[in-house]
Amino acid sequence: xxxxFDIGARVSVRASFPPGHVRTPFFxxxxxxxxxxxxxxxxxxxxxxxxxxxxxxxxxxxxxxxxADLWQDYDGGTKDSTVVDVYENWLDEAAGEARGETS
Amino acid sequence: MLRRHHDMGGLExxxxxxxxxxxxxxxxxxxxxxxxxxxLVSDKKRQIMTVDELRRGIxxxxxxxxxxxxxxxxxxASVTNNLIEKGVIDIDELGRRMTxxxxxxxxxxxxxxxxxVVPETDGQGA
Amino acid sequence: MAEDHTHDHPHDHxxxxxxxxxxxxxxxxxxxEAVGELLIEKGVISGDELRxxxxxxxxxxxxxxxxxxxxxxxxxxxxxxxxxxxxAAAEELGIDAxxxxxxAVENTPEVHNVIVCTLCSCYPRQLxxxxxxxxxxxxxxxxxxxxxxxxxxxxxTVIPDDVEVRVHDSxxxxxxxxxxxxxxxxxxxxxxxxADLVTRDCMIxxxxxxxxx
Lengths: 103, 126, 213
What we know:
- The complex is a heterotrimer.
- In chain A, strands 4-3-2-1-5 form a five-stranded antiparallel β-sheet.
- Chain A is mostly beta strands.
- Chain A has two helices and five strands, in the order E-E-H-E-H-E-E.
- Mean pLDDT of chain A is about 90; it is low at about 100-103.
- By secondary structure, chain B is mostly helical.
- Helix content of chain B is about 45%, strand content about 0%.
- Helix content of chain C is about 45%, strand content about 10%.
- Chain C contains twelve helices and four strands; from the N terminus they run H-H-H-H-H-H-E-E-H-H-H-H-E-E-H-H.
- In chain C, the strands form two sheets. Chain C has a two-stranded parallel sheet.
- Chain C is globular and about 55 Å long.
- The chains are: A mainly beta, B mainly alpha, C mainly alpha.
- Chains B and C meet through helix 1, helix 4 and helix 5 of B and helix 2, helix 3, helix 8 and helix 9 of C.
């Protein structure tokens, strides 16, 4: 397995809303975070859930988000973070988020 | 609805009451049996179902039943549906066996329609 | 089936306590018993396997996780190995942590970790036993990600503003456990006494380890 993203990569979670069994929580879809760890290859739960093999296995990442980026009016301070395990098929490079851009 | 009912991170809900009456219970033997059955049918030796199939089966109970049932009720409902789908157990034998077990039970079965529908307000109050 | 089965009715209800037999059987209890019996009759599982699994489930408690945390507090090399591979570190202590990978996250003066599973109720059962009901409840699963500090306060845990609260949503193939900070004043305690300070809740991250004394 070669992982598409390195540790430290900025990634955005696809804003996709298919039916069926997925393990990407709603609250991070469309959000941008940073890969903090590559957990290794895991079989695809979206396939395993329906009795199929889930092969080929794909990288599972730990993605860290600023909690304040996830919730409007988050009042817990800017340091707080939220880490979610996300399978590679849910991640895109966060190209438009380069530093220096005005948001 | 874009969001599926079991995917609840960020939804409004009442306070957690870690010291209240619903916060803890000693698991009943039948609940542990559900856990044991799942672990056995999904173990390396058998591989009859995966935890992902368990989760899918729980989600597919739908928002009404999902909220009405207790944790291990959801589990056995999903495990059983999976075993039926896979042809491990058939519906006829299951129905007959459930009736036999209930009739042999000293205190009988719960007689009202099952599952009991409890008006769902998150169980949290305001 | 059970060697010590003393009931005389036709099914194996040896797992039920007498007081439960006084209550009517629910639909899902009957389903559980029926599925268990049918799987045994079909040879899919054996009665011995079921009984052994029930014993294994009963044997799991927060004590295993607490033992690991106490060792990590006194042995930084062990802690490093535990952070690297919880299952292998457990084995060093003679603890069978099962086959599901577990990741340990460490509290420090700068970071407080807390674990939740918003999609279901994933929990490191093999190291700390079955989850409390509040962990599986809608309020905890919904709110821990969006207002963790309020949820922690409901457990009586107040995290200073300058400490990062790091929430781990246990959504996929791993389970998480927190290594809490070693309490002040615990320097003179041996490992067993240290383990007594490590509660289930502090390994979920909703509380701190117990204070000394």
